[in-house]
Amino acid sequence: MKSLTDNDSKVALRIALLTIHDTRKPETDTSAHYLAGAIEASGHVIADRAICPDNRYAIRKYLSDWILRDDVHIIVTNGGTGMRDKNSTLAAVTPLFDTDIAGFGELFRAYSFADIGSSGLQSNAVGGKANNTLIFCLPGSTGACRLGWEKILREQLDSHHQPCNFASAYAKRD
């Protein structure tokens, strides 16, 4: 793996965005709109973007297709992480993981607790790696997406963030 320093160019990651929701449309998808803007403002590229129903098999299809693509480094999902029976993101994504990033969900819930109190407990935010593609699943509210991006993902996807970051793993991938 290449070691990055402040003098090296920032790694521009190719990120796919998946909104998991039964009624969202592109014009009403404020969470993905926020994430796309934040991702691009950080120097990364939107490799693909889609909205799919909250159905574990539909979710797995999108994720599996993107996991197999060489031009997708990271997948960020929003929606379907809550406690209602219909929410199926966790059940859909965890069987695909080769490696769990348990700390992602733990850290998200800690920040969420600071923001909204004990209601943050109901978030099943999760992260993992499948076929060398990192996957981060956020709740569907714009506030939760902002929290996940600003407090965790923005730094971890920045190849200059020290002492370590996820982006460095992709320095030699392309």
From TrEMBL:
Pathways involved: Cofactor biosynthesis; molybdopterin biosynthesis
Keyword Nucleotidyltransferase in record: no
Similarity-based family: Belongs to the MoaB/Mog family.
Keyword annotations of the record: Molybdenum cofactor biosynthesis
GO biological process, one term: Mo-molybdopterin cofactor biosynthetic process
Record's function text: May be involved in the biosynthesis of molybdopterin.
PANTHER family: MOLYBDENUM COFACTOR BIOSYNTHESIS PROTEIN B (PTHR43232:SF2)
UniProt superkingdom: Bacteria
A Pfam family matched in the record: MoCF_biosynth
Descriptive protein name: Molybdenum cofactor biosynthesis protein B
GO cellular component term of the entry, any: cytosol
Domain MoaB/Mog: start-end pairs: 16-160
